[in-house]
Amino acid sequence: MARALRDAGMEVVYTGIRQTPDQIVEAAIQEDVDVIGLSILSGAHMHLIPRIMELLREKRADVLVICGGITPKEDVSHLKEIGVREVFGPGARTDDIIKFIKNNVRAKGSS
Amino acid sequence: MSNKRKLEELKREKRRWEDKVVKKALERFPERKKDFKTTSNIDIERLHTPADLSIVDYLKDLGFPGMYPYTRGVYPTMYRGRPWTIRQYAGFATAEETNRRFKYLLEQGQTGLSIAFDLPTQIGYDSDHPMAGGEVGKVGVSVNSLEDIEILFDDIPLDKVSTSMTINSTAAMLLAMYAAVGEKQGVAPDKLAGTIQNDLLKEYVARGTHIFPPEPSMRLAIDIIEYCSKNMPRFHPISISGYHIREAGSNAVQELAFTLANGIAYVDAAMKRGLDVDEFAPRLSFFFAAHNDLFEEVAKFRAARRLWARIMRERFEAKKPASWQLRFHVQTGGSTLTAQQPDNNVVRATIQALAAVLGGTQSLHTCSKDEAWALPSEDAVRISVRTQQILAHESGVTETIDPSAGSYYVESLTNRLEEEAMKYIERIDALGGAMKAIERGYIQREIQESAYLYQREVESKQRTIVGVNQFTTEEEVPIKLLRVKPEVERLQKEGLKKLKERRGRGNVDAALKSLRKAAEGDENLMPSILEAVKAYATIGEMCGVLRDVFGEYKAPTVI
Amino acid sequence: MVMVLNMDVKGLVEQLLKGDRKSAARLITLVENQPEKAHEVASLLLPHLGRAHVVGVTGIPGSGKSTLIDKLIKELRGRGKTVGVISIDVTSPFTGGALLGDRIRMQERSIDEGVFIRSMATRGSLGGVASATKDAVKILDAFGKDIILVETVGAGQIEVDIMKIADTVILVTQPGLGDDIQAIKAGIMEIGDIFVVNKADLSGVERAMGQLEAMLNLGRWAGEWKPAVIRTISQTGEGVPELLDIIFKHMDFLKNSGLLQERRRRRGEAELMDVIRERLTQSIVGGFRGKPEFETLVDKVARGKTDPYSAADLMLKSYLEKKKS
Are residues C159 and C239 in the same domain? Predict the structure, then answer.
């Protein structure tokens, strides 16, 4: 996924696995990212993502959050309610994800 | 007519066929693709003929089942004697629930158990550790101490079942717990049968549940191998895995090559420890994936047996035939399952299971149709078990040994896969072995290249995935999914608290102290882990000590 | 905490000086994406600069730089210092994108209030350092970080340019490179202050250190700092406290010997040249691209009808004439 985003011309900060919500949010703030992409295969999304959204709110960070991995349909609406902009299920194309990001992120300033 | 003359005549006739008959057909309509290739990029010929077998020496290259080089099977009677073990990977939430699922599976006809553990258990954290939040019981059963394993095997006789445990960094602890439960049931350790995955190398490159750096991890792995060879001879102390490497995106050749390269690394390490190769090699086992390209997979399994036999006999000079045998378990490829039109997954699992059976596997797990969404529900897993039973009892493929042998296509593919895998193994040897290759990021890069290529092929529709990029439907098929209740975490935390109150500190502290001392020295850690386990030390406590002594490791991430 | 979304540069700098992390991050993004604002940022930051000790860390990929930096941060924090880190990775010339993965090794430090880590891509800047990097260093200096580590990959000309902004330059290498160690000679050998042989648990460490020491004796020295050659094992942290000691020793040396001024002068010159170069390139080359007269000249050069020197003369002449009018 990271490679596909890079090949689409984006700068991708890759944090590696086993990140805590605090680490993710701090990295997002320091790197001043436009998007946080979360990949969760274990089913722990309903515990971890709300925490991340909470931290982002606390720190007033304006970031678009998308996630992917294994997410049952019933959870998708709840995740969107708490602020996740889109949930990409298994079989999602990298091209669709890239398109979504390009359409939904206002690039910071221009060069 | 001599063989050579017959061969030439054949080649002539084939050319004639291509020039006359095929050419005419191609003028009417071309073939579907310009290049036909397997998933490992091996060219597929339009037609294979006896000419492809001319280089195959039956006695030398194929031989007989149960005899070197084991290409046709590791046992003399294979499924005519005993079918493969139906071994469905299972586990979630608490030990009680998993115990119930185990009993269900055994009732349905499963013949061996396979335990899935949750991530905290695999990574050495107790359920109340901050890192465990949200993960307790999610991808497998939550185990904090011997108490959980006792509940897990309640009413399940360890002298009657064999159990496979998918556990790596904390394998020693789980093995010790299993042995302790066996003891309580009155079953001696040398009667216990099963497998412990214990494969650290693939954790670093594909799976991610490693804890310690390579050296202490290897030491622990060899401690287990050494301990089992002396005390638990019916237990496979390691399951050298290619499944996860394949799931991470490698192709079939890489799966084969990297698995065997890792195997070589373990044999090297065990011999360096001073073990005689014939002492431990007979108990090594392997674990592969089965994906959709039926014939490539069959060829892969056959090539694996022949290649490993040659490696053990020629490179390591093992003397016992049992040391040359590659015994393996197969799991059908989870990554091939689609979330769209889940019923299709039953068909996929069937093809993949067939490949495993034609490939001569010793045990098999078939994935369930809902597994692109969640852990399998009871209904879905029943179908998976039935799939294997229908293959075993209705399909007839078990009535003779290695039925696909002699197929011009299969034998030529088997040769190709062996050749290509050897090239990788030689490259890894040149880098200094699997561990060095991993440190250099070589294996990770290869896996990623394949994964990226595959994804691009799917997105450009070069590669069809039915229901996903072709033959899609708009309608949603509702499926009943298994959900792990969030209370599991609370229950496990409470259980932990009560355990700690009950057991008292005395024995535990003493045991942890011995464990620390043993870890700092170089004795085999199994005895002290056993002691700690029996004192009801928790996984988190034991790993805490080891983390302290060995340090934690971040595998080189290659992007 | 403050909403920085639409704040102007002045506001952001105000918040930065108060210690707001989001403002620091936003300002760095600003100088990256809106170079026209960089001028304003630079002048507003001016009174608050000069406190931080800037340490450049470079070396070939795979030498364990990021892990070493992670351990250095740990050690620095243990000694009560605040740390800023800028990790530079290369932008793909084909896609314009970049994979910034240095952070992986340092992620544990992210949640430490005293540490600020930022990844930056080179973004294809000509002639060396993304000039945004230099501005980012200033931002972290004004932000109050005691030490600012700047990490780059490779040891080529680009990296040498980046290192010119550092007070202390560290080159990281590892044993077993054999002849590759010869490849490091240009540029970096001349400006390196500390040479680290990392992965010292591998065989060949003595040889590597010996090779470095031999090569260093051939260099010329400004002042009496003899470059140090030490060994570390970044995986375990072995050698890191000693490395930090030498870093501090170097800084003291610079201050006491007056060489700090010279280093700062070197930095100033590099920064000035960078901006001039970028402005000139922008205005001259920027004006040409796509213009028919330029494209015609390119065709002529490609077909051998004229040589690049004559063509350049033509373009520059026309540019200067336009400027006059």
Answer: yes
